[in-house]
Design goal:
mainly alpha; elongated
Length: 69
Amino acid sequence: MGKISRDSIKKLIKRHFDVSVTNGGADEIAKILEAEAKRISDFAVSNAKRRGDKVTKKDIREYVARGRR
C-alpha cells in the first residue's frame, strides 16, 4: 500500500484546525486514511469493471452515498 507522508498530514491538520500533531498521531491518521482509500478504491474499481469503464467521480460519490465501510 502507498504511504501518505507524515508531513502532508501535519500540514493538513495545521491548515484546517490550527493545531500541531505528533509524529505518532500523523502516522496513525495516515494509516486510517490509507485503509479508507483502499475500501473506496475497491468499491469504485468493482463498479467500473461491471460497466467495462473507468473509475469516475460518480463511483466515489456512490460509495459515500451508500455509507460503505
